[in-house]
Specification:
Elements lengths: L9 E8 L22 H6 L9 E10 L6 H15 L6 E5 L5 H11 L6 E4 L12 H12 L9 E5 L2 E4 L4 E2 L8 E2 L7 E4 L2 E4 L22 E5 L7 H8 L4 E6 L7 H12 L3 E6 L14 H4 L2 E2 L5 H13 L5 H10 L1
Parallel strand pairs: 1-2, 1-3, 3-4, 4-5, 11-12, 12-13, 13-14
Antiparallel strand pairs: 5-6, 6-9, 7-8, 9-10
Helix pairs in contact: 3-8
Length: 335
């Protein structure tokens, strides 16, 4: 890479592996590759234009396939980001990540990073060895966003396929397409192209420096159970028996729950298990049902959060000692 201009912003690039760091023996193949094998230095070498955008500080935090993301790595990543951003030497952070769990990591960081400086995640749908690999441009765009003044105080962002998404809203919507990430309910925050960054709106919910959450306390066990035709209560009973502290239901439609699951959840809440109703649909919001479900169960509506992000927020709430259903509902209405 060329020596960057000393007047440029200083951006930390934290690599965690994923498809963006993947490699296959055949450049024509976009599946069957090994994720996370290309180091951060090689990723950066593939994008020489970065030297015209920012001064890069690179760290290899992990080298995993993001399907194997863990809570322990979340804690490590959040702690390192907070350490970097509290200094005057780093102006923003970019995280390279696998696509499988990117939305979960992004939302966790959205609620636990304690800085107004830009934090941007990016990834790729094609390994670095593939024809027309999308990782280099996504990385360039992510650094461009992180180096841009307008990205400050926007919370954690995802830069992917020229779009900029809010961590709370974004989700993976395709198994193969390079435009795999969307914000189905309200759309992207803005866009980035050829060095230009433009935001069309701002995230209004609390995040980052305004968030009450951190990772000082261990995250409790929270699991996800789906509702579907002929569903059995066996999974709920098994989770409760293992000592789970919370359950998120990926319900049908407006977070509706199969009758066989309803009684199991009622039994679970009597044992102190927190229950949140989300939806498996993929977009839209889950309304609070009052006496029809939530009041009788003592359950909480996830609003527009999908089951995976609802799990993240419920873990953080429980870790903060928030256990009353009404108080948890207020958290979901706020974040």
């Amino acid at each position: 890479m060329n020596t960057p201009n000393e007047s440029l912003p200083r951006i930390a690039v934290l690599a965690t592996g994923g498809t963006i760091a993947g490699q296959a023996g055949d450049a024509s193949k976009t599946a069957g590759y090994k994720a996370g094998v290309v180091g951060v230095d090689k990723l950066l070498e593939a994008v020489p234009a970065l030297s015209q955008v920012a001064r890069i500080h690179a760290e290899q935090v992990a080298s995993i396939d993001s399907k194997d993301m863990s809570i322990a790595l979340w804690v490590t990543l959040a702690a390192r980001i907070n350490e970097l951003l509290v200094t005057d030497h780093i102006d923003g952070v970019v995280i390279t990540h696998g696509t499988d769990t990117l939305e979960e990591t992004a939302y966790l960081l959205h609620l636990t990073v304690k800085s107004d400086k830009p934090v941007v995640l990016t990834a790729a749908m094609r390994p670095s060895s593939a024809l027309s690999a999308d990782g280099p441009l996504n990385l360039l765009n992510a650094v461009t966003v992180a180096a841009h003044a307008s990205a400050a105080k926007q919370g954690v962002l995802v830069a992917f396929n020229n779009q900029i998404h809010c961590a709370r809203d974004v989700t993976k919507t395709s198994t193969y397409a390079v435009d795999a990430f969307r914000s189905p309910e309200i759309g992207a925050l803005g866009w980035v192209q050829d060095g230009r960054v433009e935001f069309q709106r701002k995230a209004l919910r609390r995040h980052t420096s305004q968030s009450q959450f951190d990772l000082r306390n261990a995250l409790p066990a929270v699991e996800i159970v789906a509702s579907y035709a002929g569903a059995s209560r066996a999974a709920i009973d098994a989770f409760v028996a293992t000592g789970v502290k919370g359950l998120v239901i990926a319900g049908t439609g407006n977070g509706s729950i199969h009758a066989s699951l309803h009684q199991a959840l009622a039994d679970a809440t009597k044992k102190g298990v927190a229950v949140v109703r989300s939806s498996r649909v993929g977009s839209g919001h889950v309304m609070r049902n009052g006496a029809a479900s939530d009041d009788s169960l003592g359950s909480v509506s996830a609003g527009t959060l999908n089951p995976y992000k609802a799990r993240v927020l419920l873990m953080l709430a429980l870790a903060a000692g928030i256990t009353d259903p009404g108080a948890i509902q207020q958290i979901f209405d706020t974040y």
